[in-house]
What does this fold into?
Amino acid sequence: MIDFIEVHNNSASAKIALQGAHIFHYARKDEKPLLWLSEISDFEVGKAIRGGVPICWPSFGMNNSDLPQHGFARTSEFKHLATNEIDANTTEVILVLKHSKETLALWPYKFELELKVTVSDKLTMELRTTNLDEKTFKITQALHTYFSISHISDVRVKGLDKKPYLDALTNEQLTQNGDIVFEKEVDRVYQEVNEQILLKDKDRTIRIKNEGSSSVVVWNPWIEKGKRMSAMRDEAYNDFVCIESANAFDDFVEIKPKNSHTLKAVIS
Ligand code: BG6
It folds into this structure.
């Protein structure tokens, strides 16, 4: 079992694991959780939790073949720097990961990675990367949010109409036409996204607004890939959709020594 921080205030509750600064529960008061969490996920040291918001960093996907898929942050132990009760409705939690012998062996740069989570009637995540090295480095990254839904056939994603995207299943560059609905495996990197995205479900609408990024990954593994995924039931693909706030592929970030970059996502 891994350690986690629990937050309860007048507007919401959340749980954040120190491993990976991984938010694995967030719910507004008297509402169903917004985040999906696999009921068979391992809470084991060195294994990413399946669900919630894994942090993909310093590389998204297999962008950097020297690193594990989605980088090493999601399985690294963060330090809990502070929990600040801003008011009765708002709590801020700050977690930090710094370079170590282990990270330098995988990725040869000194850095500080800070996640500030603000728990209120919105979930706000601010992932700040600071370059503490003498060399400039490049990162790709994602707040890989798993949203809990009533059923995959009930949801549509709005706000990406006419956006260019890379279909990661075929490697084709395409253009979105209308809303996204799910009738098969979907694994796409949308580009040039600055607008709010809506996840429309039967009985609620979730809003996602990103800053510091222009790529959004939309992913559902569907039946066959769903069966091959670790730490989730075969039918679990019906229960979630991932809408990931990302800097992926050409939307990488270059950070000079002593400089920082923040990827921010607000979910409401
Ligand atoms: C998504 C990718 O971001 O993450 C998918 O687009 C991938 O291709 C998914 O399957 C889950 O990855 P992982 O490493 O957590 O199994």
About this structure: The longest strand covers residues 79-87. The chain has one domain: 4-267. The chain has two helices and 21 strands.
